[in-house]
Model the fold of this input.
Amino acid sequence: MPIRQSLSANTLIEQNQHALALVKTIEMHKGFVDKQHHHSWHQLIFPIQGLIQTEADEYQFLVPHTTAIFIPAGVSHESIAITDTTFIGLYINPQYGRCHEIDDGQRLKQVSMTPFLKELILMIKQQCQADLATSHSKTLRLIEVLYDQIHASESFKFKLLIPKDRRIKMIFERLTEKPDLGLTLSKWGGIVGASERTLSRIFAKEFNTSFALWRQHLRLIQSLPLLESGLSIQNIAHQVGYQNDSSYIKAFKDRFGLTPQQFRLRDHRIYEAL
Done:
């Protein structure tokens, strides 16, 4: 069943209430905010390219191409494009199969986007677009497998720490544009109009961490889109403020549980078919 990509997800759901699933490709320019909303169907979203941040349940999830995020029906969420982003939205009708077993109170889950999960989503998309009555039972079986994969998958949490305080936001914006800036917190205080002690208290209050650790996390997040390019690991490390690639690799693995090269080599060629 061909889908008009210009229609919103909720409009598509309303027009196809008896469908088992719908698949939609969505493009968002850097900085675009898909404001707080919810769907009556379960949703699985994952980027083909770029990075999106999804906020829900008082959490912020960064979603790179190596992961997907499952959002149960009815859960209010907001997404922000950290870079120019193209992502797939798979919407699953909760009236069919075991998807109705999901608790209303269940929270989001970020899962590893394995080659098998990608192939499975591709097969569901093809079945949805076939629009054949005979494909109903096959599509339902595929959705059942998808449901199992989501709940059995290893969970990943790429959290992006975005500040609320006006002064910290100024630092955040500068470091987002130029993550290799090595200014001390004292020097940042002179720029944003606050003492080093005041800024330290704000970091502890908002993030329960120090400025140095917050900046390290931000630098690692900024390195994710660079890893999708052809740049060397050493070049990427320098661009985001590390003196050498070994320090960058260690910090990346400590934070995300895999090396930059492992992140880069996660196979996402199947996205060409999606």
